[in-house]
Write a structure and sequence with these properties.
TIM Barrel, about 260 residues, two-stranded antiparallel sheet, eight-stranded mixed β-sheet, binds iron/sulfur cluster, alpha/beta
């Protein structure tokens, strides 16, 4: 297993399959992964199950300082990011100052890279916190993960922490009234002696109904590209992802495939 952690707050820029030249921001500690999910395919490895403590996060002030320094440097070099992307070692919205950090990022983006979009990759589990909801409303690409319309499959793939309720997550996503990007990882494999495949006909039928119901401004479909903590997972063929994308297009919703 060769999963990895980001060792700094601002990283890259990297050429992203989905986001172009992406300047990354990691709001999580650099020495462990913290997330409210424990996805079997997570590039950062398995979730550290130790309780969260706010002292492990970089302060909002430090995040602002680091981002400002990097944007000034990029501006001097004439190399602007297409996207400033909150991702990193887990779920970014867990950061206790997430709302303030997004406001600071909007301010810095407007000053130093006005063409850049701000994207947040989130699993949506912190949306009960109103400040997180308001912050995600401010960003250009509010990218929310829903890997299956079926709770059983979703629990298998994402392994959420205690207290998670899928109906609550979906209700919270509906509060964006379609102003979000739905991101789905398609994958198949075995967990123990149990097989799963979220591209089966039944799964896709239910997922498409959910897509239609949530009516996002865009759908991103993708499959694994790097090592995963659970061994033996299988990528989905590019042709299958394109078929899925066609089904989404027929709903009148833009779709992006990363194969
Ligand atoms: S939600 Fe994202 S960061 Fe969290 S476990 Fe899943 S893939 Fe990893």
């Amino acid at each position: 297993m060769a999963t990895f952690l980001f060792d700094r707050i601002v990283f890259g820029p990297v050429n992203s399959r989905r986001l172009g030249i992406s300047l990354g921001i990691n709001l999580l500690p650099s020495d462990r992964k913290w997330c409210s999910f424990n996805c079997i395919y997570c590039e950062c490895g398995w979730t550290d199950r130790q309780p969260f403590f706010s002292g492990g996060f970089p302060s909002g002030g430090l995040v602002k300082e680091e981002l400002k320094k990097r944007l000034i440097l990029m501006q001097r070099q004439g190399k602007f990011p297409d996207t400033i992307t909150f991702a990193g070692n887990g779920e970014p919205t867990i950061h206790p100052e997430f709302g303030r950090i997004i406001s600071d990022t909007v301010e810095l983006r407007n000053l130093f890279a006005p063409e850049a979009k701000i994207a947040v990759l989130s699993n949506g589990t912190m949306l009960d916190d109103h400040s997180v909801f308001l912050a995600l409303k401010k960003v250009d690409q509010n990218i929310l993960k829903v890997d299956s319309a079926r709770e059983e499959t979703m629990r298998l793939l994402n392994q959420p922490g205690d207290g998670f309720r899928m109906d609550r997550l979906l209700d919270n996503i509906r509060r964006f009234s379609g102003k979000f990007v739905l991101q789905t990882m398609f994958i198949k494999g075995m967990i123990g002696n149990r097989s799963f495949d979220n591209t089966s006909a039944g799964e896709l039928h239910d997922w498409l109904k959910l897509v239609e119901d949530l009516n996002p401004e865009m759908v991103m479909v993708y499959t694994i590209a790097r090592d995963t903590p659970l061994q033996g997972l299988q990528r989905i063929a590019a042709s299958k992802l394109r078929d899925i994308a066609s089904m989404v297009s027929r709903l009148g919703i833009p779709v992006q495939v990363s194969a």
